[in-house]
Structure prediction request, 150 residues.
Amino acid sequence: MELQWPLIIFTTLVAWSAGLFGTQALMAALGTGERAQVPAWICSAALLAVGGVAVFFHLEHWERIFNGFGHLTSGITQELIAIVVLAAVAVAYLAMLRKSDDGASVPTWLAWLSVALSVVLVAVMAHSYTMAARPAWDSVLWILYVLGNA
Prediction:
């Protein structure tokens, strides 16, 4: 099996984005890291955008990526749904951040929702790699490994 660099870049950057966003949300839920909120959000959004662009280079005909979106059980469809939901919550997170009196806090419910969605996104991406043809990856431990790296 040859290395698919666009998929490696996609998985790495999107997991990094979700991990950073989840960590920033956890810090907000715990009431710490006020100064890091906006820079962390910007970095997380940039990582998500670059990772999202990288996935299109996986296919020789990138327009064919849309063929996979018709099946809800498809890993790429589940990843897309998780990314879109996380991106929408991230935009709401930024809006609440900017709206807050101190410019660096969000409601606790939004912080915990952001943490949960970050974990879900990474788990969905890791689940796409679990396959019987790769016994080392065909385990719940693989999903925990990717979550730990994020």
Summary: The chain has a mean pLDDT of 87.
